[in-house]
């Protein structure tokens, strides 16, 4: 196996594949290493995405889609349901991540990326002057040292690759959701609707989701804020919910996972290394959605990395442009969302019930997320502008 | 000392993400905790979605 590469990407999720693809497209030789046996599994994700954001990056292939989404349903602690309809332009999807991640990696490989699975990276290599120049990896039981000009850390929520190079990636307890999810079949669910259950009974400091994957089958899971996990384990909350709402459902799959709900890290580049996706904490801190932002962020990283290869300059000063590009494209909005997250965390069950009742009084076609937040921010009116800007993506 | 209670671990990496000293190693289907490096903060025990980790204070 070739031991010298321009770029080594650690992690084969959407952010990894996009960064690898973009680097290769711009002329770099790229190796992508995936720890697990297969790209795309296990799926630790509720799989919901906004269609518009996705299609700016990539044309959607029908076989990646499980369900089209045109409604969301917010269920308050006292079971008041508030439905919101999306217009045609804002249609959403529930993806089949197993197929999608696998296909995205395949697309990357068709564009020149070399991929290996069962490839566990456990350390970095450094030059004499302390610049990252490769990885220590175990591929199918064989210990190897592979050199690169730049390493891209796309290793997900764990984010150890950045840490190996001195970046501070460990999450505070108020910046992570601890989650479990079951794929449940044989149940009666609202088609084409994402359901969110909010409140202490369902998921303290987070929410519980029911995302349809087709007729009679859904991803049902929940996240609890780390800082609230003294109130119970996610698995106990899910057990309680399923036995109450879907006692006859069958569980086809059960996974656990962590979702960063932080600000994008201040530093996502260093000499010879960048980090992307969940590892860089680019997940939407309110929704926990990270597929599209990770892909976007990965693409920007890949582009700058390729420029660095062409220029022969792998310094953090040069790579910093990626940090700036991301801040401009999504990071700024992300910071606003983070502020709003803090505000939402202060709301009590009584607040949520109050908001749900107020919104229920508005006819469905006139409801919007912004309106909901306007009602919500009666306690802190200065937030209205942030809310509107955040949702308008300004 | 942190011990892994049973075979329920899903290898999701949530514990790794909060560990302030990076003493947890996660493979495809194996987890290892370096108890010499561990500072006993118990964040991993608290955050585990499945309750797989346990602090053993006797050691």
Defining traits:
heterodimer, A: 394 residues, alpha/beta, eight-stranded mixed sheet, seven-stranded mixed sheet, 18 strands, globular, B: 59 residues, alpha+beta, two-stranded antiparallel ribbon, 4 strands
Describe the structure.
With 394 residues, chain A is of the alpha/beta class. In chain A, 33% of the residues lie in helices and 28% in strands. Chain A has helices at 14-25, 51-57, 97-110, 160-164, 234-245, 291-311, 316-345, 349-360, 369-376, 384-392, and strands at 4-10, 30-33, 48-50, 65-69, 71-75, 81-85, 92-95, 114-116, 119-126, 132-139, 142-153, 176-185, 193-197, 208-212, 217-225, 250-260, 269-270, 273-275. In chain A, strands 1, 2, 8, 9, 10, 11, 17 and 18 form an eight-stranded mixed sheet that branches. In chain A, strands 6-5-13-14-15-12-16 form a seven-stranded mixed sheet. A three-stranded antiparallel sheet of chain A has the order 3-7-4. Chain A is globular and about 65 Å long. The mean pLDDT of chain A is 94. Chain B is an alpha+beta fold and 59 residues long. Helices cover 17% and strands 24% of the residues of chain B. Chain B has two helices and four strands, in the order βαββαβ. In chain B, a hairpin with a 2-residue loop joins strand 2 (24-27) and strand 3. The longest helix of chain B is centred in the first third of the chain and has 5 residues, at 14-18. Chain B is globular. The chains are: A alpha/beta (394), B alpha+beta (59). At the A-B interface, strand 12 and strand 16 of A face helix 1, strand 2 and helix 2 of B.
């Amino acid at each position: 196996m070739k031991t010298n590469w321009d770029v080594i990407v650690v992690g084969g999720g959407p952010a990894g594949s996009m960064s690898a693809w973009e680097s290769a497209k711009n002329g770099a030789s790229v190796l992508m290493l995936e720890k697990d046996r297969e790209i795309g599994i296990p799926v630790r994700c509720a799989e919901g995405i906004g269609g518009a954001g996705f299609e700016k990056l990539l044309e959607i292939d029908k076989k990646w889609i499980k369900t089209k989404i045109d409604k969301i349903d917010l269920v308050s602690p006292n079971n008041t349901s508030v439905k919101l309809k999306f217009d045609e332009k804002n249609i959403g999807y529930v993806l089949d991540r197993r197929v999608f991640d696998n296909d995205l990696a395949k697309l990357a490989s068709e564009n020149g990326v070399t991929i290996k699975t069962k490839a566990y990276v456990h350390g970095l290599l450094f030059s004499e002057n302390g610049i990252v120049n490769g990885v220590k990896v175990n591929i199918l039981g064989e210990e190897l040292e592979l050199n690169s000009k730049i390493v891209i850390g796309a290793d997900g929520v764990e984010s150890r690759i950045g840490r190996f190079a001195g970046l501070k990636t460990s999450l505070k307890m108020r910046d992570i959701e601890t989650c479990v999810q079951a794929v449940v079949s044989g149940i009666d669910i609202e088609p084409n609707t994402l359901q969110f259950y909010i409140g202490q009974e369902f998921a303290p400091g987070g929410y519980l989701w029911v995302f349809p994957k087709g007729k009679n089958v859904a991803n049902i899971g929940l996240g609890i804020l780390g800082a609230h996990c003294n109130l119970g384990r996610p698995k106990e909350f899910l057990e309680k919910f399923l036995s109450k709402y879907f006692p006859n459902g069958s569980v086809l799959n059960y996974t656990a996972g962590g979702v960063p709900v932080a600000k994008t890290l201040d530093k996502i580049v260093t000499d010879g290394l960048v980090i992307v996706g969940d590892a860089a904490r680019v997940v939407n801190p309110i929704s926990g959605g990270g597929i599209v932002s990770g892909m976007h962020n990965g693409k920007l990283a890949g582009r700058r990395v390729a420029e660095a290869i062409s220029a022969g300059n792998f310094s953090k000063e040069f790579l910093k442009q990626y940090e700036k590009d991301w801040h401009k494209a999504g990071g700024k909005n992300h910071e606003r969302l983070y502020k709003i997250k803090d505000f939402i965390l202060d709301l009590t069950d009584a607040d949520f019930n109050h908001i749900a009742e107020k919104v229920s009084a508005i006819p469905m076609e006139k409801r919007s997320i912004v309106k909901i937040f306007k009602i919500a921010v009666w306690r802190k009116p200065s937030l209205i502008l942030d809310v509107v800007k955040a949702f308008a993506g300004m | 000392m942190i011990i892994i209670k049973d075979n329920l671990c899903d290898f999701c990496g949530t514990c790794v993400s909060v560990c302030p000293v990076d003493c947890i190693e996660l493979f495809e289907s194996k987890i290892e905790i370096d108890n010499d490096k561990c500072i006993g903060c118990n964040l991993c025990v608290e955050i585990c979605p499945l309750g797989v980790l346990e602090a053993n204070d006797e050691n």
